[in-house]
Every structure is written in C-alpha cells, then in structure tokens.
Specification:
single chain, 285 residues, alpha/beta, Metallo-beta-lactamase, Chain A, Arc Repressor Mutant, subunit A, 2 domains, seven-stranded mixed beta sheet, 15 strands, 29% helix, elongated, binds zinc ion
C-alpha cells in the first residue's frame, strides 16, 4: 500500500460545490487519510465523515460554512462512517446509507434515517446524488453519482494508487468484479475515491484493476491445479511468491476471496474438514 501519491492537501475545492477534507487518519490501510467530501454551498451534504475524531468533525462543520442537512456514507468500515453519528448529533443532519451487516470491523453505531437502494437519489436544490450499489469490498457499499459533474464518489470500491481488501464473507470477489464492470459502463467523467486523489481516466483505472484481479485468479487456479487438496493457508506461498511473508495473513484473506469466486464460477471445489474446519481445494477439470 505504499503506492499512494504524495501527501494531499488537507482541504481542497475540487470544483464549484464540491469540496474535500482529508481526515487525520493516515496509515498503511488508509493512505493519506479518509476523504470526506462536502456538496453544495447553501445546504450541505457530507459524504464519509471518517472515524469519530472530534477535531475532524469540528473542521467539517467550520468548513461547511452553511447548515449540514445530510450525512451520507459509502459503507460502514471504521475509517469511513463512525464520524456520522457525532456529526448528526452536532448538526441534526439526516443520515443516509445502508446499515452495517453482522461481523467484525463494522461500525454498528451507524443507524441510517434513510436506507438507500440502488438508483435512489438525494435530491437537493444545488445537486443530485444517486446511490449505486457496489458490493464486493463491503456488502453494503454504495458509490454516489454526482449528476451535475458526472463524477462518481467511489469510497473503497475504487481507490487511488492501490488495490482494496476483499475480505470474505462480507467481501466477495465475484460481486466486486461485477460491480466494477457496472461502474465502468456508467461512463463517468472522473472517480473521486475514499482514499487518494481524483482519478481522471476511470475506464483505464477500472480495466487495470479487473486485469490485476484476473491475473491473480489465473495464478490461484494454476496453483490449485498443481497442488490439489491443499488448504487455503498452504496455498498462500504458491500463489503469492511476489509478496513478503509478513503480508501472508492479508494475502490469505485475498486468496480465499479468489477461491470462493472460482467456486461460485463452478471451477473449483471445496471440501471442509469437520474437525479442523480446514478448507481443501481442487479444480473441477
Ligand atoms: Zn472499507
């Protein structure tokens, strides 16, 4: 995750009525920090207020300079949504998004006043934001299409300069790639990610991600063919020769996402040991 570009400005006006504040949570997983976006000039919508950091919430309110009416989230991972509750408490704003599913690494404090389904819109006087359901990184993930600019705000579906974690069971590789293809077909002008800079050539960026995932999938299929009956854990060094051992735990999750996709595509078979819970894989020839 070291591919993120140079340090980002903490505050930027991206175009008329679209501003960005970078939350003060930089890390290996969040790059320069989570991007919080502000829409509008007289009635403000805030997207992804980030972690519940009081100073960041105060910064959002100050920079907004007008009443914050709505707070939207792309998904309920801890670096995107926990600030929403705090911001709504301070401003009385309406919360929009999808509730957190069960599981670890989910912000259960996020309780939307309005649950958005695919295609539903927030219609403000100054802008329209359309929800695009994009499961894969997270089952409740929404991107938002800013109709006026034809920019898509992509959260963790597409980020700048790095690949995102697909962590089953909430993460799903097959759904992720399907959702990437749907987003590509929207023909957006630019992608505004949850981490990193604006992506000006969406089709190229999405093609690169799909290609990268499919190349890895081929390596997974080849490794399972050569070593039938290995567990997910045992397959890691065969698939991730290019990855340092310290990253094997992360790689194992990603590998499992690929294996489940191969299973869903009818190409791989999984047998589970009742005692150990180990999953062993073989290709269906
Ligand atoms: Zn996430």
């Amino acid at each position: 995750m070291t591919a993120f570009g140079p340090a980002m400005e903490a505050f930027s006006v991206l175009r008329r009525g679209v501003r960005r504040i970078v939350a003060p949570n930089p890390s290996m997983m969040t790059g320069p920090g989570t991007n919080t976006y502000l829409f509008g000039e007289t009635d403000i919508a805030v997207l992804d207020p980030g972690p519940a950091i009081a100073a960041h919430v105060e910064d959002i309110i100050e920079r907004a300079g007008a009443p914050i009416r709505w707070v939207l989230v792309t998904h309920t991972h801890p670096d995107h949504s926990p600030g929403a509750k705090l911001l709504a408490k301070e401003t009385g704003a309406e919360l929009l998004g999808r509730p957190a599913p069960q599981g670890r690494q989910q912000d259960r404090s996020f309780a939307p006043d309005r649950i958005l389904d695919d295609g539903e819109c927030l219609q403000a006087e100054e802008f329209v934001l359309e929800a695009v359901h994009t499961p894969g990184h997270a089952s409740n993930h929404l991107c938002y299409l800013h109709r006026d600019s034809n920019w898509l705000f992509t959260g963790d579906h597409v980020i700048d300069g790095s690949t995102v974690v697909i962590n089953p069971p909430d993460g799903n590789m097959k759904q992720y790639i399907d959702a990437l293809r749907r987003v590509r077909a929207l023909g957006c002008e630019a992608l505004a990610p949850g981490h990193g800079e604006i992506i000006r050539d969406p089709e190229h960026a999405i093609d690169w991600i799909i290609e990268h995932r499919l190349v890895r999938e081929q390596k997974v299929a080849a490794a399972v063919s050569r070593h039938p009956g290995l567990t997910t854990h045992e397959l890691v060094p065969h698939v991730y020769r290019d990855v340092h051992e310290t990253l094997y735990r992360l790689a194992e999750r990603s590998l499992r996402a690929h294996l489940i996709k191969l299973e869903e595509d009818g190409r791989a078979h999984r047998s589970e040991s009742a005692e150990s819970g180990d999953e062993r894989w073989r290709m269906i020839e």
